[in-house]
Amino acid sequence: MTGTRRPPDDGRRKRLLFLHTGGTLSMVRRTAPGPLEPELYDHYLLPYVRGLEDLAHIDGRAIASLDSSDMRPDVWEAIASQVAQDLGDYDGFVVLHGTDTMSYTATALSLMLQGLDRPVVLTGSQRPIAELRSDARVNVVHAAICALRDIPEVSLYFGGALFRGNRTTKASITAYDAFASPNFPPLLRAGVDIIPDAPPLVPAGPFRLVPGFDQRVAALHMIPGAPPRGLEAMVDIGMRAVVLVTFGEGNIPLAEWPTAIRRAVDQGMAVVIVSQCMTGSARPGRYRGSLAAMDAGAIFGGDLTREAAIVKTMWLLGQGVEPAELAEFLVQPVAGECTPTEFLPAVV
Question: Known catalytic residue: 24?
Fold first, then answer.
């Protein structure tokens, strides 16, 4: 990080690389009143977290300076490429990111950084680091601590917990513990003590960078009484997959929707079913609506979060998987993002 003093590197201190992408953490209000806007942080972060430089040798790179609503797959790939390029030079990585799409980015990185043997921790804040009541300082400090532990996967630190990144969803606009991991426990909890919880992943094979996302994926949120016109429109404009956010365990209305799904599948589009509920799994069998979706050719996403289902579908299609082959791969975990179908509770 330019413009900051670092203690001399004696060869024994661990090394962290901070990757900046933008988000509320580094935003400033240029006019009062006025909106928060992204600010580059290379001279801006460490003065607010004095002592962090004593924890490790810290360098920084600016990948982007975005409100995370403007996040894109090419930026996901730029972050992953930077991690891959510097993997041998650092003991861990901290990605500073806006909260609104952090779970999407965490999922994307987990799929691309295969065989990862050191931590990549995403974090951000609900208030800018320059504000007195900011949550950014404690999140940054704990993300750095987590990035120095033996947790070789892509994780997300926020509000007192370290989560598997691809299991998370943003659950609150206003709370400082803004993220939830509905179907998987935290990797650790940070209070007076730092307490490990779920065991981290074990690297499977050598490291590989596997980029590539097909952006011809859409999501539709089902509402009572709505006809399937949106699904039909997705076929017409050339989408290769649609993630349907359905009721309960994957239930769809019996009027019109099964026929529309069958027509979409027959025309070469994958229809992926996830639930509007935060906990549990989308799976067929308990109700007629879910059986109708399955019989029409829909693919059930199990306990994938909505974010993970969307990103993984984009990634699989980007790897050359055809829509008709998606069911074979979607609920087979790549980086712990879902529970294999055979381990989900049986429908009774």
Answer: yes
Same-domain pairing of 43 and 75: yes
Query: Angle 73-86/102-112 helices, nearest 10 degrees?
Result: 50
pLDDT in the model for residue 52: 85
Query: How many C-beta atoms lie closer than 10 Å to residue 12's C-beta?
Result: 5
What's the mean pLDDT in 184-209? Answer: 96
Q: Report if residue 39 sits inside a domain.
A: yes
Catalytic: which of 24, 99, 107, 246?
Answer: 24
CA distance 244 to 84: 33
Residue 346 per-residue DSSP state: P
Q: Which helix (H) or strand (E) holds 264?
A: helix 257-266
Residue 173: give its domain's CATH number: 3.40.50.1170
And the tokens for 8? 């001399």
What's the confidence (pLDDT) of residue 3?
A: 32
Answer for the pair 43, 1: CB distance below 8 angstroms, yes or no: yes
User: Which residues lie across from 19 on neighbouring strands?
Assistant: 61, 95
Q: Is the pTM of this model over 0.90?
A: yes
269 shares its domain with 204: no
Other Cβ atoms closer than 10 A to 295: 12
Tell me phi and psi for residue 179, to 5 degrees: -110, 150
Last residue of a domain, one of 183, 209, 235: 209
